[in-house]
Amino acid sequence: MEMFSFSDMSLQHVPSYAGITSSPLWSAVANKLSSALPEQLQTTLELNQQLQMFSMAAGKILPLTAMQLCTAVGEFKAAGSSNGPHEYRSMLVLNEQCLAELIYQSELPVSPMQQRKLLELEQQWLFPLRNALIVTRLQQLALRDTLTGLGNRRYFDDAIQKALQLTERKQQPMVLILLDLDNFKQVNDNFGHHAGDEVLLAVADAMRCTLRASDNLFRFGGDEFAVLLTAEDAQSAELVAHRLVKAIGQHHICVKFGVSASAGLASHQAEETTQTLFNRADSALYDAKQSGKNAVRTAVIHSKPIVEVMNA
Ligand SMILES: Nc1nc2c(ncn2[C@@H]2O[C@H](COP(=O)(O)OP(=O)(O)OP(=O)(O)O)[C@@H](O)[C@H]2O)c(=O)[nH]1
Q1: Average pLDDT across the chain, whole number
Q2: pTM, whole model, 2 decimals?
Q3: What is the pLDDT of residue 293?
Q4: For residues 29 and 132, what is the distance between their CA atoms, to the nearest angstrom?
Q5: Which SMART domains does this entry report, sorted A to Z (predicted)?
Q6: Which end of the chain, N or C, is less packed with Cβ atoms under 10 Å?
């Protein structure tokens, strides 16, 4: 069977979702898609890819500008989505279990006839969607820290390898920030484990609010955290590290329990391995602790000593 590939059309240059569905090539593409939709959806367990396939088929039924899928494992938007004047929502239910809510945005209101056609299309998605949700949930459980929901050490090991490949291929900067809480042990000792967990959740929140993409945020267990910055984010890494330390120290839960954070950062050097990058960031963190805590230190290249940049 001939399978549709998103890369085989010259629509790739069309900037918006509406632009795709209004392209002269669109009806040929959509015809191909809707007839093969169930088979298409079976080819991937990635929710983003399934949404993209489904939205291309739905675009044949109404002039879509955006499509969003809200699930228990996260929210996903079709590529090129932009707000439209009309919204239509539909719950995707399988065996009395709500899998997701689908939000369509379109140029025109959705007629009852279109609603019926969309419902038929949605039925084709239910089983592939359920499978993709199960797989995504399992992946999340394997890669997320159960307390804070941040990426765990396994996720970090994978992410830093991928970031390194990207850095080498595109010659772009990469910075690793390691953070460790100050005086955290006394929270557990004096107020119990529950209070300690409350602090860890507060720290994760403070970090999420400070960073643009919380995908780059990890907890290794205990009171150790890591942040991986690439491309333009890496250029302001020192600023980010100071912001993080400040945000943690100022969070009301951390203030209440007298907890602050120290950070060490290291910029990736040409041909450096992830291990040496990690070791340098760790040494910088050690230096920040030695300097009296609640501080940020930056590692300079390889064998040179770590220099003090400034106190947080
Ligand atoms: N509440 C809680 N505590 C944890 C968890 N994982 C590890 N810990 C505790 O975290 C503490 C970390 O110890 P340290 O980093 O040496 O303590 P610290 O007081 O921050 O030391 P400094 O970094 O020198 O300021 C230990 O008491 C661990 O038992 C967790 O998931 N929840």
Answers
A1: 87
A2: 0.69
A3: 95
A4: 24
A5: GGDEF
A6: N
